[in-house]
Amino acid sequence: MKTRIKSALSLSLATSLLLAAQPALSQTGGAVGTGTPAAGNATLSGYLLDATTGTPLVGASVFVRALRTGVNTDEKGFYSLPLPLGQHVVTYQVLGYASRNEQINLTSNLTRSPRLAAQNLQTQEVLVTGSRAEDHVKKTEMSVNQLDMKTVKLMPALLGEVDVVRSIQLLPGVATVGEGATGFNVRGGGIDQNLVLMDEMPVYNVSHLFGLFSAFNPDAVQDMKLYKGGIPAQYGGRLSSLLDVRLRDGHQAEQVKVNGGIGLISSRLAVEAPLIKDRTSVVVAGRRSYGDLLLKLVPEQRDNQAYFYDLSLKVNHRISARDQLQLTGYRGRDAFNFANVFKNNWGNMGGTARWRHEFSPRLLGNFSGVVAQYDYELGVPSGTQAFNWSSKIRNYTGKADFTYLLNDRNTLSAGASGTRYQFEPATVKPLSAESIFGGLKVDEQQAGEYAAYLENEQTISPRLQAQYGLRVSVFDFLSSGTPILEYAGTLGQHLEPVNPRTYRNGEVVKRYANLEPRASVRYTLTETSSLKASYNRTAQYIHLVSNTTAASPLDVWTPSTNNIRPERADQVALGYFRNLGGEAYEASVEVFGKTMDNQIDYVNGANVLLNKNMEGELLYGRGRAYGAEFFVKKNQGPLTGWVSYTLSRSERQINGINADRWYPNKYDKTHNLSVVGLYTLSPRLSVSSNFSYSTGVTTTFPNARFVYEGLVVPVVSGDARNNYRIPAYHRLDLGATLKNRPNPNRRWQGEWVFSIYNVYARRNAYGIYFRQNEDDARKTEAVRLSVFGSALPSVSYNFNF
Amino acid sequence: MLVCFRLSFVFFLLTAALSSCTDVIPIDLPTAESELAVEGTVTDQPGPYTVLLTRTSGYFNDQPSPAVRGAQVIITDNEGAADTLRETEPGRYQTHRLRGKIGNTYLLTVRTEGEEYRAATEIKRVPPIDRLEQQHKVKEAGWKDGYYVLYNGPELPGVGDYYRFKLYQNDTLRNKPDELIVRDDALYDGKYISNVELTDRPFRVGDKVRVEALSLPQDYYYFLNEMFTQINNVGLFSSPPSNVRTNVLNRNASGPKAVGYFAGTAVQSATITIQP
Q1: Mutating which of A604, A768, A783 best tests the B interface, going by the most B Cβ atoms within 10 A?
Q2: Could you list the residue range(s) of the whole structural domain that residue B261 is in?
């Protein structure tokens, strides 16, 4: 097995060296090939697919050795290679597959979609990279981390729940405000500054159970890519990052495949099936937690419910060789019902329809329609206090994206998108005639966001490659027919509404526009090392209003309005990228600096829920973040994994807080270290471990008190904010995966997954709080809250057939 | 009226379920410069009314707050009445003849240690409590077994009324940090409040329960609401510790600041004795 991997690797390495050298050669004398040179060029294009499953092979090489020219397949397995007319030998090659040579006679544009056979199952499973290691050095993109679901599934998981968001928190530049807090913070940005896309559908709340588990079903996800900088011009609308989560494609499977798992928290089932052979496939994946089913066994708890579920559906249909249609649907929900006393549920839902059309071998188009929604409901179902409180954000988006291969040195991307937002911040309705509740409605809002972009990826010289573009974004805050208010008062305190004005429904109240330049360059130092730099400006027009340490599911998104201005960020990053030991190791060092405008914070004692004048509780200011990220990843061999270390600072300055001086963000962590190791002991057994260490997050401590009507009230001198830190956070997790004995006559494959979270049972502080002693009202005390106070073992069973 | 309670109930339940834990830990805090702390009220009930003057102390200081003695304390109203308060105990100042009235405004002036502080307030309207009833809950989901007192009374039409509810059990105010009940009427404007529990902690047979409904000026409502947040600020969804507002202002803006509140309230009350 080992030799096979090695030979595959050396082959691939040889290819990459060959290809890297190509432009240099062509400059100094042109290509010399076995092919018969003829006047003119034509394009060879097509898809590269797995022979048995039909999975597109991403990042595969397609090259003509004699001409020393080649390309990689894109995320759909598509390639397009301009070649001189004549006869060529084309090599198709990707790690883990038998490579294939094809003789072609190119007289005009030609389509070839060969299928490659997987070499060996074991080989595939050892490979954890989604893209080839050489991309790390060769690609223009930087500040990007890609995680394959295979890797994530091998990592130790909290209570056995494989978690996309938790695995992202182990990457450089990514932090969280605390264990069990929803979302993630990228390079000093807030959790609402991440554009999280699931097959192009924005996900407004990435969590189940308040943040303990992520909203993504691991069986439905193919892979994910996190852009912390150098964000392509195609994407916008959020300040700090893009998390692109791709769902499994359905493989254009030749037979029905079932994946599933039974865990402590939830069970999962995913079915992939061909609907029409070689044309249409479908993947349905579902997951549900069942804590409440256990509750039913306890008589007093019988009427209580607490669960989450998510369901995704993806249909892939090949209309023709040049047209492909993809439909994705998602619904996730959390629900808490306490008998007839209280009900609360929330979740994301939405869907995407995508049509991909190949206009010509050089011009590709992608057309998408997206709808996404986050909403929640809570209330008391019956009795004199019966009410229902609901809130919702929904968007409809249409977009078109084009890629045009201008020539072998320039690839142009261009596109446009339009989004319509609807916001329903809060509606409270009494549910019975005798209810003590009247109604309350915080006015609905609507907005439009439009963008267009043009970007070019250019090979300037053999060593220098650049990607540069411009995104233009426009945001219209539209009237919903209700009065538009301004706010006045003393800075740092609740402001009162003034000067109400009425606009026609749909009329533009306020328009904002931003130019967002994006640029990245890569300069090759040696075959195995490069320097990269990037600059990008991003603008954000919708904001999550959240005044609590961890965002809660009840937090509400708001558009930019006549009062709330768009957030804007400028980021510069510089990096050194290097492969070591052949391609066994990828290493990188990046430094970044970022400034942010119109950052939102809150007046003391702000009340942002159910508040018609919520905008009167907001304060605005500046943010800045800077740091260095060190990353080493081992891709090959029985031991794989990575070490990530981030040294950073993230601060803000808001007039009205901390006496107008800079203060660290609540998620600022000076040091942040993650070590992830995955070790394959035998074809059946692999073990894994995570270790995380980070500086404690910031917090505010009072330093004085007074007594008011018998209650002790804390005083923070000088209105300080985040003047202390909680103790450092560290944690070790262990995991093991044991596969059933292989049996070629049986389709059923099973594996046991064991994990221990927080192995040495550290009581990591989530926060430190101050309170009056329960028994002696005069005494005050500091209290440490830990989300997990013990080691949490778990076992789950996964199967597929 | 229980909306807030129930919400926190869910969140707490969740954290409890996940083996979360809290423990008391030692923390060293620097001492801060001490400030004047004011606690004073004028009500629509007969006086005397009391103003307590103390100084803030270190956060972990469990001794009584140091009294501010020998201050000159005056309350005036918009009808021209002025009452200079008498120090009856160290730091405790009482009115002589001032009588609070709904609709009037009041100004407190405190002169101490060379500084002059002022605080203005008013007394707002309050609805009557029609009656209290008792309810015995046994094995009701989400409730502890025991006797609950149900509130019945109107809420006055027109948004902008703010209330505090005080519960006295055998003449002792229930005064745990989470028993500071303040509400605005945005959700209940003009509705009849019928059979609503004011607390999720039950009473016992024989308890004499008095409920007071206090009207609050808007700013005082904000003060108490912020105070509630700050003294119950534990958990995943806590908000950043910050100072609660005050209406006590030093006339010299650059002089030492004060904390606390001088408030006007109107009071309605009703009493019930829990029967078996």
Answers
A1: A604
A2: 36-124+225-265
Where are the CATH 2.60.40.1120 domain residues in chain A? Answer: 2-120
Whats the size of chain A, residue-wise? Answer: 801
On whether both B171 and B195 belong to a single domain, the answer is yes
- Please tell me the CATH code under which domain A246-800 is placed: 2.40.170.20
- B95 found inside a domain: yes
Preceding omega of B48 cis (within 30 degrees of 0)? yes
- Both tokens of A466, joined, read 């650049």
The pLDDT tens digits for A352-396 are 999 999 898 889 999 999 999 999 999 988 888 889 999 999 999
Quick check: is B163 in a domain? yes
Predicted confidence pLDDT, tens digits, chain B (276 residues): 333 333 444 444 454 444 457 888 999 888 888 999 999 999 999 989 999 999 999 999 888 999 999 999 999 999 999 999 999 999 999 999 999 999 999 999 999 999 999 999 999 999 999 999 999 989 877 788 999 999 999 999 999 999 999 999 999 999 999 999 999 998 889 999 988 888 889 999 999 999 999 999 999 999 999 999 999 988 878 888 899 999 999 999 999 999 999 999 999 999 999 999
Q: Are residues B120 and B131 in the same domain?
A: no
DSSP helix/strand/coil, A398: strand
Residue of B nearest to A335 (CA): B10
Half-sphere exposure of A509 (CA within 13 A, CB side): 28
Nearest-CA residue of chain B relative to A656?
B242
- Residues in chain A with CB shorter than 8 Å from the CB of B192 are 436
Q: How far apart are CA A564 and CA A568, in angstroms?
A: 12
Reduced to 3 states (helix: H, G, I; strand: E, B; else coil), residue A125 is: helix
- A703 touches B: beta carbon within 8 Å: yes
The answer to whether the beta carbons of residues A426 and A389 sit under 8 Å apart is: yes
Taking the CA of residue B60 and the nearest CA in chain A, the distance in Å comes to 6
* pLDDT grade for A128, boundaries at 50, 70 and 90: very low
Residues of chain A contacting residue B156, judged by C-beta atoms under 8 Å apart: none
**Is residue B196 located within the same domain as residue B65?**
no
For residue A242, the distance in angstroms to the closest alpha carbon of chain B comes to 26
CATH, residue B150: 2.60.40
The upper half-sphere exposure of residue A264, i.e. CA atoms within 13 Å in the direction of its Cβ, equals: 16
Q: How many angstroms separate the CA atoms of B41 and B223, rounded?
A: 14
Q: Are residues B116 and B234 in the same domain?
A: yes
Number of C-beta neighbours around residue B56 at 10 A: 26
Yes or no, beta carbons of A705 and B19 under 8 Å apart: no
Alpha-carbon distance A651 to A623, whole Å? Answer: 6
Asked if B117 and B238 sit in the same domain, the reply is yes
A792 half-sphere exposure, CB direction, 13 A CA radius: 18
Domain A2-120 in CATH 2.60.40.1120? The answer is yes
Whether B190 and B206 share a structural domain:
yes
- Is residue A119's pLDDT more than 60? no
Q: Cβ contact (<8 Å) for B59 and A178?
A: no
B132 in a structural domain? yes
Q: What is the ipTM of this complex?
A: 0.93
Instruction: Say whether B7 and A721 touch across the interface (CB within 8 A).
Output: no
Note whether B217 and B234 are same-domain residues. no
CB contact under 8 A, B18 and A788: yes
Chain B: closest CA distance from residue A153 (Å): 23
pLDDT tens by residue, A698-721: 999 999 999 999 999 999 988 899
Determine, yes or no, domain membership for B17.
Answer: no
- Regarding whether B251 and B214 lie in a shared domain, the answer is no
pLDDT in tens, A765-799: 999 999 998 888 889 999 998 888 889 999 999 99
**Which chain B residues are within 8 Å of A714, Cβ to Cβ?**
59, 230-231, 241
Tally of domains within chain B? 2
Assign residue B186 a region (left: φ > 0; alpha: ψ between -120 and 50; beta: otherwise): alpha
